Amino acid sequence: MNMMSAARRKLVVIGNGMAGMRTVEEILHRAPGMFEITVFGAEAQPNYDRIMLSPLLAGDKNFEQIVLNSLEWYAEHNIRLIAGEAVTTIDRAHHTVTGEHGTVVKYDYLLLATGSNPFVLPLPGVERPGVMTFRSVSDVEKMLSIAAPGKSAVVIGGGLLGLEAAHGLNLRGMEVSVVHLMPTLMERQLDASAAHLLERALTARGMTIYTGANTESFDGEGEHGAVHSVTLKDGRRIPADLVVMAVGIRPNANLAKASGIATDRGVLVDDAMRTSDPAIFAIGECVEHNKQCYGLVAPIWDMAKVAADHICGAAQSGFMPVASGTRLKVSGIEMFSAGAFMGDKSTEDVILRDAARGIYKRLVLRDDRLVGIVCFGDARDAGWYFQLLKDEAPLGDLRDTMIFGPVMAAGDPHEALAQMPDNAEICGCNGVKKSTICNAIAAHELCTVEDVRARTKASASCGSCTGLVEGLLKLSLGENYTPDAVKPMCKCTSHGHDEVRRRIKGGALKTIPAVMQALEWTTPNGCASCRPALNFYLLAAWPGEYVDDAQSRFVNERMHANIQKDGTYSVIPRMWGGTTTAGELRAIADVVDKFNIPAVKVTGGQRIDMLGVKKEDLCAVWQDLNEAGLVSGHAYGKSLRTVKTCVGSEWCRFGVQDSTAMGVALEKATWGSWHPHKVKLAVSGCPRNCAEATIKDFGVVATEAGWDLHVGGNGGIKVRATELLCKVTTEEEVMEYACAFLQLYRMEARYLERTAPWIERAGLKYVQERIVDNAELRRSLFEDFLHAQKFAQTDPWAQEATSPALGKKFNAMAELV
Amino acid sequence: MDGMRIARDFVDIGALAEIPRLGARTVTTGMGDIAIFRTADDRVFALRDQCPHKQGPLSQGIVHGASVTCPLHNWVISLESGQAQGLDKGCAPHFAVKVEDGRVLLALGVPA
Lengths: 817, 112
Ligand code: SRM
Ligand SMILES: Cc1cc2nc3c(=O)[nH]c(=O)nc-3n(C[C@H](O)[C@H](O)[C@H](O)COP(=O)(O)OP(=O)(O)OC[C@H]3O[C@@H](n4cnc5c(N)ncnc54)[C@H](O)[C@@H]3O)c2cc1C
Ligand code: SF4
Ligand code: FES
Prior knowledge:
The complex is a heterodimer.
Chain A: E1 9-14, H1 18-30, E2 35-41, H2 53-58, H3 63-66, H4 71-76, E3 80-83, E4 87-91, E5 96-99, E6 104-106, E7 109-112, E8 116-118, E9 131-133, H5 137-146, E10 152-156, H6 160-171, E11 175-179, H7 192-204, E12 208-210, E13 215-220, E14 227-232, E15 237-239, E16 242-245, E17 249-251, H8 254-258, E18 267-268, E19 280-282, E20 287-288, H9 297-312, E21 325-327, E22 335-339, E23 348-354, E24 359-366, E25 369-376, H10 382-391, H11 398-401, H12 413-419, E26 425-427, E27 432-433, H13 434-444, H14 449-456, H15 466-477, H16 497-506, H17 512-518, H18 530-541, H19 555-559, E28 562-563, E29 569-571, H20 582-594, E30 599-602, E31 608-613, H21 618-627, E32 640-645, H22 659-670, E33 679-684, E34 698-703, E35 706-711, E36 723-728, H23 731-748, H24 755-762, H25 764-773, H26 775-792, H27 796-802, H28 804-807, E37 814-816
Parallel strand pairs in A: 1-2, 1-7, 2-3, 7-19, 9-16, 10-11, 10-16, 11-12, 18-20, 32-33, 33-34
Antiparallel strand pairs in A: 4-5, 5-6, 8-17, 13-14, 14-15, 21-22, 22-25, 23-24, 24-25, 26-27, 28-29, 29-31, 30-31, 34-35, 35-36
Helix pairs in contact in A: 1-9, 13-15, 16-18, 21-27, 22-23, 23-25, 23-26
Chain B: H1 2-8, E1 11-15, E2 23-29, E3 34-38, E4 44-48, E5 62-64, E6 67-69, E7 76-78, E8 94-100, E9 103-111
Antiparallel strand pairs in B: 1-9, 2-3, 3-4, 4-8, 5-6, 6-7, 8-9
The complex binds siroheme, flavin-adenine dinucleotide (FAD), iron/sulfur cluster and FE2/S2 (inorganic) cluster.
Family (chain A): Belongs to the nitrite and sulfite reductase 4Fe-4S domain family.
Protein name (chain A): Nitrite reductase large subunit
Pfam families (chain A): Fer2_BFD, NIR_SIR, NIR_SIR_ferr, Pyr_redox_2, Rubredoxin_C
């Protein structure tokens, strides 16, 4: 074939970007000289690697380093490049295109490669100087003209692009905030667990992440002034010298559409990348193939081959999309995701969490094949996983070990620990070496982790080296090592309650996802048994700091009322120490009438229960009760329930102390406190004990000399009489001992363990040593309790009844009739 | 007859943001309440708001993974199939529901 023949066919390419030029390269490869090629590019530069805009912004690369096809290359291949001129019309009848500066070029074949446009949120202030998108070299230049250390940047959108922009600006010394609409970052590439780690890594680099945040406006001086802040829908305001919007892309199909080529979201193409006009091909982000648009280069490279095959008439190939993987180009953060990483009803998960190294890997399997991958913290094996995914081959035996990567950890971990040098540090928190531990085990005949902890402090803080310490015990004791059989909290973890509580404190873990990651939970978000426990442990560990998670609470605590067998609720207001007034009783009577409440009962806890209240009526019922001064009685909670009293010395002929006033004071001090289980108190005015104080968690019985304090009673399933803790003389002492006792219980008992079984486990002596013998500790427990109460004593009824956002959950979201 | 028409089509019942993650909201219908669940990874599911055991309101349970634990006696119900898990037997009817542009669409006539 004579390539230099006179009538060479004319190929015009619209779009001098990655897809267009890759196709040109493929064409040159197949049939050099077959076409007379003209390329129109709206951008002034030669074709560059758009992917590398992120490193360009971050300062890791300069523009020369990211150019793909230099001007010399175009000249060498006799390609006419018309850069800086966008094509404005395609005349399909006459086979010509016209540029914005008037250049007209004839074509035999036309290739559309116009890419996509960043989506711009139509919000007030979007046209202000300083508000921009992230798509081209000129966008990067604009950002860099504003970026300077100490200035503030707000990135709207926590997807791949947004986070890369945020990272770049962060490296340029800016104060960067990311505002993301969805609850977790990169939700299209990462599951919630990986997203949590990502958020943590970015926060550690000084970025501020706002998730679940909706932008309201971009604000500045006057109507046209540069942006100076971003306002969120919830009223929060973030300073911003620069706003980068990275909320998505739209295929750029305008030109095709205006020329009468079939388009939908993008330019419609068949498997040959041909549009509805047989002389016109389209490729890259501007196309829509089988209802699918693309935003990554891997599929675009496949498209380029197919288009070149057909344009040159070289082969009859067809475009077949394959899964693409995504990596985040943020130095130091390893992340990879591909395929159906979320999983669905037909898939199973293999999950690996390595808390110490911040690693999370999730492989999603369907019918013995790998269909989805999420790696965070360690993406070294991502390529291998991705190949397995693309191969679609049955995994067979590989399934058991593949999560550990292609090179299964050489030999067994036991051996690795044995090989570790003596001076290797095992416990980072306390700087304890291997030799120190091994010597201690030998010298003091230690045989449990607890022993090692007490003797060497190894694993006594964050606890993430517990596994290593156990390994050393095994090495030293061999067969003689019998790990204490700790009952795991639930099937989501191998850790027991105590270990979890210790690690929450030691590791400064402050959210449920943080605990699940650090303790290597085996399920993505726990179960109905561990979530309420974790929520309580966090609440107890970090008063005022931990944000309660309503979704991890049992229905009663979420609804502040007891669910009944028919789905209605019962409402029990507090009656301090069992006392009430005519006004309160009247208010209750009115509420019962107004809301047609079917049953009213006096409870065993000295108060009044309104039963059968409809969910939709709860807020209104509470509002009415609140108005009469009645607040939630927490009859529904793992919390302080009641303080029963008897009439005492005020009225009773035998009474020796004012038990009613003491009970009211105790209830006022302790209401609202959350506990591992419900907690009940009682105060009797004399040893006749009419308030049944000796079957309560904390019982107080008056004597001539003062007060007897009793603990660990239970009147429920298994009756247990209290044991005497001690005797005290003043009301102040009763208060201090009671609160200190409750604090010790809430910090040490396991979730759903009442005081009775707890004391049987810990021993009365243990409690007495802390509450009675050690005045300093008692004092500090008392203070800790009072501190926590500052955040706990808010009436949940008042809170819900006055907050429309919270109140929503009581009503249906829609009615369909 | 109008009701029939609505029932078969997908109907916009509100924004996804109105349902808490790992939580649920209800929709009142002529055939009783429907519970709309949202998982941690923003999938939504619709089940009749009645536990196959003793009609407990599933919408008030604790959501974990793609399951909900009934608030009354702790049966665990699959959100995807409505089937009771483990040794318990029973099934809550489920409905087609999807999210488009942040809106939740429910179709009562279409079995999921
Ligand atoms: C309403 C009331 C019965 C009554 O009409 O008197 C009651 C009702 C319930 N009790 Fe009780 N208990 C009530 C006083 C008691 C008492 C007596 C007392 O507090 O002096 C006891 C024995 C004392 C004790 O707790 O040691 C008592 C021991 C239990 C137990 C067994 C606890 C145990 O540790 O063994 C349970 C089961 C549980 O909590 O797991 C229980 C559980 C329940 C539940 C919450 C069952 C449930 O989960 O739905 C009932 C809620 C009904 C509702 O919706 O209101 N209820 N329950 C009493 C409410 C008192 C209040 O004003 O808050
Ligand atoms: C910051 C950033 C980071 C990215 N990171 C990755 C990554 O890590 N991995 C990955 O796979 N992908 C990444 N991408 C996406 C990748 O860059 C695109 O998928 C790819 O560039 C698409 O190629 P394209 O040719 O379709 O579009 P483009 O590369 O955008 O090229 C289209 C060109 O057409 C021009 N044009 C448009 N209309 C006209 C007209 N009427 N006349 C003349 N010219 C016109 C445009 O100016 C543009 O130069 C990233 C993108 C960005 C912006
Ligand atoms: S004794 Fe049993 S039936 Fe009666 S209120 Fe308590 S839990 Fe319910
Ligand atoms: S009603 Fe749901 S478990 Fe009993």
